Amino acid sequence: MIRKIIAGGQEGAQRAALDWAIWHGIDHGGWCPHGRRAADGKLDERYQLEETPAYQYSESTEHNVEGSDGTVIFTIGHDVLGAGKEASGYCGVHEKPWLHVSGTGYETAQTLIDFVEGNRIAVLHVTGSRESQEPGIYQFVEDALNEAFAPEKRA
User: Fold this and answer.
1) Hey, which of 5, 40, 103, 113 would disulfide with 76, CB 3.0 to 4.6 Å?
2) How does pLDDT run across 118-130, given as a tens digit for each residue?
């Protein structure tokens, strides 16, 4: 199943995925903007991310799409916002599979499992809403990843 999780480190969905990987001993990484720029300040060094030459978020988003086998975009509502919208566009350009998981949907865990298994995803790029855009997204991502991929589920 998932060998590595990559994300850009922004607060919300991306940071939840990186924290989840760290907590579960799964390799993590990805690209972040130059200066470890994040909307809520400088990204902590514990996140093993490489910096892009540019300060723009779009460059790190594209690198993360390219460096993955597929992308999952988490939102609370139906709409794909910000980084998620940009990531879905890059997935089209680079012919990478992507999945939008909404907090309004059902059977999130099985949908994630089917996406990962069906596309043979070993390196998963996670993006989505920021906590400041959709409060509760961090917890939603953590719960979804636990339900689908917690170590006891991978046995």
Assistant:
1) 103
2) 999 999 999 999 9
CATH number for the domain including 117?
Answer: 3.40.50.450
Residue-wise pLDDT tens digits, 65-87: 999 999 999 999 998 988 899 99
DSSP secondary-structure letter at 99?
A: E
Tokens of 121: 């995803």
Residue with structure tokens 């909404």? Answer: 102
**Number of domains observed in the structure of the chain:** 1
Q: Which residues contact 150 (CB under 8 A, 6 or more apart)?
A: 24
pLDDT(107) > 70: yes
Strand partners, 3: none
Q: Quote the tokens at residue 50.
A: 């490489």
Domain hosting residue 53, numbered range: 4-154
